[in-house]
Amino acid sequence: MPAIHRHHGFRFVIYPNDHTPPHVHVYKAEASAIIDIETLEDHDVHEMRLKDLRRARQIVAEQRESLMASWREFHG
């Protein structure tokens, strides 16, 4: 699945066959996390530094409308 957004080394992905609530999978190098688009809560964090996780949440907050539009394209 191609990234729907890239920013400062982060890659944000929404998978078309994924489940609710609306969320993005965030990747940076070998690290990953899942961030809820609406609440900005993170889940399944793997090897992502706290500094990067905070920055990823900030990017999701800044791009919330665009990310939600992408979620709706995939999930209705």
Characterize the structure shown.
The chain contains 2 helices and 5 strands; from the N terminus they run βββββαα. It has 76 residues and is α+β, with helices and mostly antiparallel strands. The longest helix has 13 residues. The radius of gyration is 11 Å and the shape is globular. The model has no long low-confidence stretch (mean pLDDT 94).
Low-confidence segments: none
- Count all strands and give the number: 5
Question: Which range best describes the helical content: under 10%, 10-25%, 25-40%, 40-55%, 55-70% or over 70%?
Answer: 25-40%
Structural class: alpha+beta
Average per-residue pLDDT, rounded, comes to: 94
Strand content: 25-35%
- Give the C-alpha Rg: 11 Å
Order of helix and strand elements from N to C terminus: EEEEEHH
Name the strands of the widest sheet in spatial order: 1-2-3-4-5
The major β-sheet equals: 5 strands, antiparallel
Structural shape: globular
Distance between the termini: 18 Å
Number of helices: 2
Oligomer: single chain
Descriptive labels:
76 residues, alpha+beta, single chain, 5-stranded antiparallel beta sheet, 2 helices, 32% strand, 5 strands
